[in-house]
Structure formats: C-alpha cells, structure tokens
Design brief:
By secondary structure, the protein is α+β, with helices and mostly antiparallel strands. Helix content is 51%, strand content 17%. A hairpin with a 5-residue loop joins strand 9 and strand 10.
Length: 330
C-alpha cells in the first residue's frame, strides 16, 4: 500500500508535536508516560508558580499544575500533580515553604496517619512555614527596639570606662598604672643592686662554690668508703651472737647452770616460802608475848621462864641482888 506524501507529512508533524510535548513536560519534571494523580489545596495568598516543585521528605514527586483565584472565598486554589505510586492519607497536609534566602517557594507533602488514602481529585488541608526572611521581617520592629537598648547600654559602658580611665583618684586606672610603674622601677633597682652585689663578691662566691664542691667530693668519698665496709661480715657476727644468746637462754630454760637452777628449782621457792612463814609467826609471837624475849629486872628477881606452849615454869632459885637486864631467847 502506497502512503501519500500528505499522510507522511501529517504523521511527521503529529510525532513532532507529541515529542515536543513529552520533552517539555519531562524538562519540567513530569513524565507523561507514567500515571499521575491530581490534588487541590488553597492558600490565603499566592507565592507560587506553575513550575514550583512538590516534595515529600525532601524527594521531588511532582509539580504545581495550575493556580487559580476564587472570587467567592478570596482564596488561591492550587492544583498539584503527583506521581501515582506515592500514597498518603487524607489527613496529610500540603505545606508551603521557602526554598532559599533569595526567594522562591515550593510545596511539601506532610504525611499524617489516617484511615483512608488520598485519591485522585481530593482536597487537602494546607499550612505555611515561615522562612528566615519572613521571620526577620515580622520581628524587625522588636529587633530594632532591642538593638536600640543594646546600643544605649554599650554607650553607657563606654562612658563609664572613659571616666574610669580619666579619673585621677586612687580608684582610677591611671593611678593603678602609676603604681605598677613604680613597682617595675623598684624591681629594676633591686635587680641592679643584686648584680652589683654579685660583681663585688665574685671572688667570695667563687670560693664558696669551690668549698661546696670540695665538700661534695668528701661526701662522695665517705659514701664510697661506707659502701666498701664488710656489712655482710658484720651481720654474720651479729647472727653468731644472737645464736649464742639463744643457746644460753635454752640452757637456762633447761635448768642448767646456777641461773637455770635458781629459776627452775622448786625447792628454793619452797624453802623461801617456809622461812617467810616462820619469820611471820616469830614476829606475831613477839608482838603478843614480848616478855618471852625481853626482861627487865631491877631488884635481882629471876625472870620467869616459859615453855614452848607459853606456860610459866616455876623456879625457886633466886638471883643475886643486883640490877640485871637480861635478854632471854626461847
């Protein structure tokens, strides 16, 4: 079948138009070969254009297709076109935000949980996110007033600082700097005096340093000699002495020698205890019966005798008539 030249021309023109439409939409970020959904929202004012992008979580998913003004409500109706494979609920919102400091706005889908997914042609709620420039513009009056207060405070601070510098009293910085200069001059004079003292007594200081060096040498020699002492031999002698002392103590413990017998013999303790008891009895008897041991005779009378039990022994013999003082021991 032969195709006429007119049909070929028409097919070529239609293909060119379709290619131009596809290329134009593709350059704007819209692929007409994919499925798309359209949604609408409204704003109090228009800050968009038909080339503004639509994003979700930072990803571009569509663009603004149409912007119309509603005379009845005074709202701006915005129609957006989004790729069909993106799903979100009907509770989601469309937020307008600034893309940069130099201007330009875009739309963002803010997903919200909801029971139903948004469908093609649904109307979504909108909100506006204030940018940096808008916030500064709204708050410029407050910033300017605060800036004025800050400038006044800075001016007052500078005035007080100038007064403090110019003040000639003792509390001023000028007086403090003068005192600091005097202190520095005093330190410099003291350093000069120290230098003169060192120069004047250079020989004495040199001699003192030499003596100190000689003393250090002597101490080093003494230390060396102390190191050379046979410390091990001294400890050996000490150990031998301790062994001898231990042997002597062992002999004493075993009852050997006079000291050992004195410490370990029970007879000595028994004899001493008996002698002590007899001495105690003798003293007690002396206190109770002193006439047994001491007798005073003025007229020559024979003293009475006592037996072991303390009874008086009768004796008819008489003594010569003379003054006698007899000491009798029983």
């Amino acid at each position: 079948m032969k195709i006429s030249r007119e049909v070929k021309t028409a097919i070529l023109v239609i293909s060119g138009v379709l290619l131009m439409v596809f290329t134009f939409n593709y350059l704007k970020g819209l692929n007409i070969l994919q499925k798309h959904n359209r949604y609408q929202t409204e704003f109090d004012y228009n800050a968009l254009n038909t080339s503004s992008i639509v994003t979700i979580k930072g990803n571009t998913i569509g663009k603004v297709e149409a912007i119309t003004y509603d005379d009845k409500t005074g709202k701006t109706i915005v129609t957006i076109i989004i790729t069909g494979d993106v799903n979100f609920s009907t509770n989601s919102k469309i937020r307008m935000y600034e893309t940069g400091l130099m201007g330009g706005n875009a739309l963002a889908i803010i997903p919200m949980p909801g029971p139903e997914l948004a469908k093609n042609g649904d109307f979504l709620q909108s909100e506006v996110e204030e940018g940096l420039v808008t916030s500064l513009t709204k708050n410029f009056s407050g910033i300017s007033s605060n800036l004025g207060v800050t400038l006044k405070a800075a001016d007052s601070l500078m005035n007080n600082f100038n007064r403090l510098i110019i003040n000639d009293n003792d509390d001023g910085i000028k007086a403090a700097i003068a005192e600091l200069n005097k202190t520095i001059i005093s330190f410099r004079e003291m350093a000069n005096a120290m230098n003169k003292l060192v120069v004047k007594n250079d020989a004495t200081l040199t001699s003192a340093l030499g003596n100190f060096e000689a003393l250090s040498s002597n101490l080093a020699e003494i230390t060396t000699e102390v190191k050379k002492v046979e410390i091990s031999k001294t400890f050996a002698n000490l150990d031998q002495t301790l062994q001898e002392v231990n042997g002597m103590l062992a002999d004493v413990k075993d009852g050997k020698g006079s000291l050992g017998k004195l410490l370990n013999d029970d007879k000595l303790y028994t004899n001493l205890e008996g002698a002590s008891l007899q001495m105690e009895q003798l003293l007690q008897d002396f206190k109770l019966n002193p006439k047994r041991y001491v007798h005073f005779s003025v007229f020559g009378k024979k003293p009475k005798s006592f037996d072991a039990e303390g009874n008086i022994i009768e004796d008819e013999k008489t003594q010569p008539e003379e003054i006698q003082i007899e000491l009798q021991n029983n």
